[in-house]
Amino acid sequence: MNTSFLIELTVLILAAFLGFEVISKVPTLLHTPLMSGSNAIHGIVLVGGIIVAGLPDQDVWIRVVGLAAVALGTGNVVGGFVVTDRMLEMFKRRKPRQETEAKPE
Amino acid sequence: MSTQDGITLAYIVTIVSFILALRFLSNPAHARKGNWIGAFGMAVAIVATFFREGMQNEWSILLVMAIASPIGAYAARAVKMTAMPQMVALFNGVGGGAAALIALSEFHHVAPEPGRLDANVSVSIALSALIGSISFAGSLVAFGKLQELVSGRPIVYPGQKFGNLAILAALLGLGIAVIAGAQEQGLLIGLICGSLAFGVLFVLPIGGADMPVVISLLNAFTGIAASATGFVLHENVLIVSGMLVGAAGTLLTLLMAKAMGRSVANVLFGAFGQLQVSEAAIAAGEGTVRSATAEDVAVMLAYADRVIVVPGYGLAVAQAQHSVRELADELEKKGVDVKYAIHPVAGRMPGHMNVLLAEANVPYDQLSEMDEINPEFERTDVALVIGANDVTNPAARSDRSSPIYGMPILDVDKAKNVVVLKRSMRPGFAGIDNPLYTEPQTQMLFGDARESVVKLVQAVKTL
Question: B309-325 burial, b if ≥16 CB within 10 A, otherwise e?
């Protein structure tokens, strides 16, 4: 095994633990936005799509495959962030006039 | 500093913004800002990628992005909140599809040099193609089921388990061939086609009510596929971002299965037993049901001190969430304390009900999670169950023979009065009777959820 692979593997494992740590703090209230937000984040495959579509000296069909990946990735990124924003915009606190009442929690 | 260093630094900025985006999601007050930070990070990564050495085709890539962006944005703007699960499934699917295409493209790029393919690269290519394709096809089927293009009922046929296992075995064989160094395009294309078929067959037998688990799982799949793509291209930004999503999806999958009182395996592969149980259980059912009028219920609500609304997906289907908020407003004007009890699997994806109520301008501090609200039912005068069924079924607590035994439920039956808004006495998704309906403190208000709530609002207003 080469070193770069081992480093990548280390990064992967650390990211997994970090992910569990950060995400377990998200309240159930926000699980749908969490899902669509993380959906937008895996849109990072767009970067991969750009990389392969930008490789030099390709056959036409493989260029098409790369560009198709770019198209799908773009839809993933744009749609994911927009839809998450739309949802989060709706979450509002109770209006101040009602905040005077005692909170049982 | 070389350009490559600059790009790597930009990717680090991206990673940090993604982590911050997820962190900000722990509080609804900051969550929206977090999403913007995430979008910023994504933009940084995209721009930086164009500066890679030897980058070609920039204009065609930009053109494709310029065409795809408005499509994604339009879909995201146009979708109804009730249809959110299918939209998430769709975006999930395209992400998985992209990962599979990248694997194919990169394989073509590296394969022609025999003996040069490292095992880690070939394993990653195979995984990225496999998981990405399963996620793509599975998400599309989930989309079809949620959109009701495909029947939401579990679709089963004889020999299904065997067939699926055979496909999986074939896929493993193809994957091993790719890894072992048979650098044939055909093998990888075969792997992708087989994975697509497997994705379809894997999701088809899963019923509509189990979709929260499936969507979370497919989300995890796409994340892991993106991560595998990172190993293919040696880009940490993909490895980390993909894995963050993989962790999120895995965690949500486990949470959802737990909230259904079932194992993940049972949800994914349990369609067979599930069907038989439901047919047997529909026949049962006895005891008297008390039916109430809207006026009776309105009086009961208006003179109560504490009311807990228990919304289920039936409420969303009837588009009753706005009327319910109106009802709550009227009751609060009369000094009634109104809260909403949200079961984790209410809706078609994790947390779906919260979004639907937020859309109807219900303040989020009025929405309570199951564990938090369950002790409060005893002190509650009226529990108003709207379009929820199985999540209120006390048999889950007491009846060992019940198919939902062990599923955590909302303790609605402990409230002094229970009012159930329901179209008819038909059982819910799990197809089992709910003893709650025949308990002495329970009254039924039959009819369309929205019409019933509108009647309640009018009746409360006149009091």
Answer: bbbbbbbbebebbbbbb
